[in-house]
Structure formats: structure tokens, C-alpha cells
Amino acid sequence: MLKIGDIQLKMPVLQSAISGYSDVVMRRLARQFGVELTFSPVMLDKSVAYRKFWKKPAFCLADDEKPIGGQIVGADPQTMAAAAKVLVEKGFDLVDLNFACPAPKVLRRGRGGEMMRNSKLALEIFQRVRSAVQVPVTLKLRTSYYENDSEREHFWQICAGAISGGVDALIVHGRAVEQRYRGKADWEVLAQVKQRFNDTVILGSGDLFKADDVADEMRLSGVDGVVIARGAIGNPWIFRELTELFNGDEPTPPPSVTEVGQVLLQHFNMVADLYPEHKAVVYFRKFSANYCRRHPKRKKVLLALMACKTAEQVRGEIERWFFNFENN
One of 60, 101, 159, 292 is an active-site residue; which one? Predict the structure, then answer.
């Protein structure tokens, strides 16, 4: 069981906000495989506050997407608070503040991971948002900006200040901002966070690609739950595996090539319903890459799908390689 504010979950597993990926289709597939709480892609505070996002299919909310979290990034406390109010108005059940994004274009504007060396501003933003909305508020953090002890002091200040201000959970990715996704996530720091703030909900993130690894990191660090990001792209089965693992059920065998093809086709058809044909084909390529990892002829299948220019061609290649794969 996991409780974040007034949101009660049966499983301690969430699907992360993933820029460019966690759209309505990916979220619905994740729910289909057992996850209860998902997040929108990261949204710029100004665009949310001035209501520019809602015509974009990636940010649409489906009727069955409850509960759902909305993640915003920005550097102005007033705008972030205004954006949080709009998220609640639009039906989001939780507001997550992104103080972790390592993308250079985000950092150059003083947003995201830049907050990890500006604890005063980070806490001002949190306090304004916390006062603006009545739904749970969480923070997404990295362990520091640069990988050294002196830089980590900002991290501890943000954690302590947010907890004293009533944050509902801290989501901590076990890397410094400068590391981006290089090296190995440091779950020992997550253990330190949980030991220091035992009464606060701490959710871990970083290098969670297999169900057994998730269970191991949770056990060793003592965190209350995890947020799956890259490990869920083209891999909704990780949520089924985790549900079975935490329930003590007999694990379902890994998906067959045919089952992977069925989910791949379902994913593409839902994307095709949202976008014009050419855009759907191009947009879907980044999801195809991870699905193809489960195919014994991964490189050939990926090249075939990347070469498609029409929806008919995509469906044809999926049928060829996943439903008639023994003939290839």
C-alpha cells in the first residue's frame, strides 16, 4: 500500500512523467498492465498557466485516467502557482514540481535541475504552489547539481524545507544533474534520505528496468515506492511483473513475440487515432525501438519499422515480423 496525500494506492509503483513519452496512450497502456497512478509529460509552467497545452493530444486526459499527476517545470513562483491551479481545474489529482530535469535547454533558463543549486528559489516555488492548491504536491529532485558533498547541501535543504512545509512525497532520482543518465544511479543516497526523513513518503527513481531490480532497490533503500521512467518505455509488461511480484503471485512468462506484436499494434493504432497519419508514423518510431528489444531479430525489425512512411506500412511490418515471424 502507498498513500500520497489523499491518494491511496494498492501498489507502491508509479509511472513517471517522461518528456516526449508519457502521453495519454502510454499512460493508458500502463494502466492496462496494472499501474494505478501515472504522470503527464513535463509541462512548462507558462504554457499551462496560459492554457496553451490542452489542444495537444499528448496532454489530453482520458475519462478513465484517475488518479493522474501533472508535472510542471518553471522558475517563477507566481507562474508555477498559477499553473498548478490550472492543472487542478483540468482534472489532475496531484501536482509534481520538476526540480530535476537535466536537459541543457531547461537548465539554461534556470529551470528543472537548476533548482538543485538554488534551494531558496526551489522552496519559494514549493510554498507558493502548496498554498495555491488542495491536492497532493510532490517534488521531483536529483541528489545534487554536481556530484560532491558541498553541492548536496542544497538537496538536503530542499528536502527539509519541503517536508516542514507539508510536501506529500519526495521523488528522488539517484544521480546528480550533471550526470544526466550516465553512470549508475546511487540508491545509497536514497537510503540516507529515508533514514533521515522516515515519516515522509520517499519514492525512488533511477535505473529501474527489471521487476527484480525494483524489489531489490526498495528492500535495500527502504523507500516507500518507486517511479518507473525509461524502464516503462515500450515495456508496459514491467507493471504486470511488479504487480505479480508484490502480490506474491506466480509470475507470468515473458511475453511471446506475438503478444509483443499485439501490444505494439494496439499502441500504434491509438497513436494513429490522435495524430495525422504522417505525424503518427514519425512520432511512434521512438516507442518502436524499445518494443523491438523483445524480438529475436531486433535490428532487422527496427530498421523495417523505421523505414515506414504510412500507417499501412507500419501495420504491415508489425504483422510480418511479429505475427508471421517464423517465416522471416
Answer: 101
User: Backbone dihedral region of 180: left (phi > 0), alpha (psi from -120 to 50 degrees) or beta?
Assistant: left
Q: How far is CA 5 from CA 8, 9, 93, 265, 279, in A?
A: 8, 11, 10, 37, 38
CATH topology of domain 2-247: TIM Barrel (3.20.20)
Provide the residue ranges of all domains of the chain, joining segments of one domain with +: 2-247, 257-327
pLDDT at site 63: 79
pTM of the model: 0.94
Say if residue 169's pLDDT is above 70. yes
Active site residue 101: yes
Q: Tell me the CATH number for domain 257-327.
A: 1.10.1200
On the question of pLDDT at 188 being above 90, the answer is: yes
What letter represents residue 306's amino acid?
A: M
Q: Give the number of other CB atoms < 10 A from CB of residue 8.
A: 11
